[in-house]
Amino acid sequence: MSTHFRHTQPPSPKSATGRVAEVYEQISADFGIDRPPTFVVLSSAPELLAPAWALMRESLIAGPGSRTGKELAALGVSLANRCPFCVDAHTVLLHATGEHALAEQLARDEDPASAEHERLLDWGLATRVPGADLRPYPFPDEQAPAYLGTALAFHFINRIVSALLTEQLLPGGLQRFRAVRSIAGRALSRTVRRTPEPGAALPLLDDPGPGPDWAAGTPVGPAYAALGSAARAGAGLLDADDLALVHTALRDWDGEHPSAVLRGFPRRQERPGARLALLAALAPYRITDEDVAAWRRPEHSDHCLVHLVAYGAFAAVDRIESALALPAALREHQP
Predict the structure, then answer these.
(1) Nearest CA to 214 among 321, 109, 126, 319?
(2) Per-residue pLDDT averaged across 124-141, rounded?
(3) From 9-18, 67-76, 231-240, 257-266, the region with the lowest mean pLDDT
(4) Residue 87 and residue 92: Cα distance in Å, rounded?
(5) Position 235 confidence tier, pLDDT thresholds 50, 70, 90
(6) Taking the model in full, what pTM does it have?
């Protein structure tokens, strides 16, 4: 399993106790995968693990709406963020929903045959751009909390994965073979095709707030609030000038990927922490061993690095989320 990880070496899941063990148990039951590296990588900072899982569970897995539709939205997000690991994972999960032809069309970079599926994929792609017009939604308004939560969850997860995991979903890139994708998906089909009880992840969180208005009182809201609170704690690893630089860059970000020369990014020799946080936000796949080494000090544990990356990742999520417009139909669903 260690071959999945870059820059950190998380604790062995077999040694997990307490809250971390509880999270792994719920992931296994509701996601169908034992100790996926997507979440194991966060276990170096356990306070991030539970809310990241909770947001994904309460939106993608337990939230209302078609699992196929939410997988398409998550795939669109992952394509927009250039996260091959997550693109491959959602292709496998589309097989798990029974949409084998659709999964293979997308694996071949073809457009979905169904106009409805194409709209869902395009909607996910569009969410990378802060302030993009995401309406009319390609799903009923009452399902918006689950779809928006799914999109925002994967804007965070994509960045963690791109920064701290390799691109290999399966050993040797086996996910590139159609038969392997299909078999892997079928192995997950029973779990994927059932909908677990909403809200079951919330007891894993420490006193979360109610969350933003768009969550409309659903369990997605507290999960989002808890992840934001945990991720923003990484700001303590940066000084005031670093934070100002990150805030200014994110304020002006329009969803574009940075140029090849990373114009406008701080130099690693001068502001390595701000550079890492901004890369995590805007181009986590561009983080190098040299970037990490320039920042590392004896006091900087894997816990610190995961927190710094999570801070940058959530800064981008926060920029996207803060630009969302709340339709009247969602306000009517407020408790």
Answers:
(1) 321
(2) 96
(3) 257-266
(4) 9
(5) very high
(6) 0.94
Question: In Å, how far are 47, 276, 286, 305 from 292, measured between CA atoms?
Answer: 22, 7, 11, 8
Rounded to whole angstroms, how far apart are CA atoms 98 and 267?
Answer: 47
Q: Which pLDDT score, from 0 to 100, does residue 274 have?
A: 97
Measure the CA–CA gap between 27 and 237, rounded to whole angstroms: 30
Q: What is the 3-state secondary structure of the chain?
A: CHHHECCCCCCCHHHCCHHHHHHHHHHHHHHCCCCCHHHHHHHHCHHHHHHHHHHHHHHHHCCCCCHHHHHHHHHHHHHHCCCHHHHHHHHHHHHHCCCHHHHHHHHCCCCCCCHHHHHHHHHHHHCCCCCCCCCCCCCCHHHHHHHHHHHHHHHHHHHHHHHHECCCCCHHHHHHCHHHHHHHHHHHHHHHCCCCCCCCCHHHCCCCCCCCHHHCCCCHHHHHHHHHHHHHHHHHHCCHHHHHHHHHHHHHCCCCCCCCCCCCCCCCCCCHHHHHHHHHHHCHHHCCHHHHHHHCCCCCCHHHHHHHHHHHHHHHHHHHHHCCCCCHHHHCCCC
CB 150 within 8 A of CB 320: no
pLDDT at 322: 94
Q: What are phi and psi of 5, to 5 degrees?
A: -100, 145
CA-closest candidate to residue 157, choices 32, 327, 28, 41: 41
Q: Which residue has the tokens 């970000």?
A: 253
Q: Which of 86, 201, 281, 309 is catalytic?
A: 86
Is 304 annotated in the active site?
no
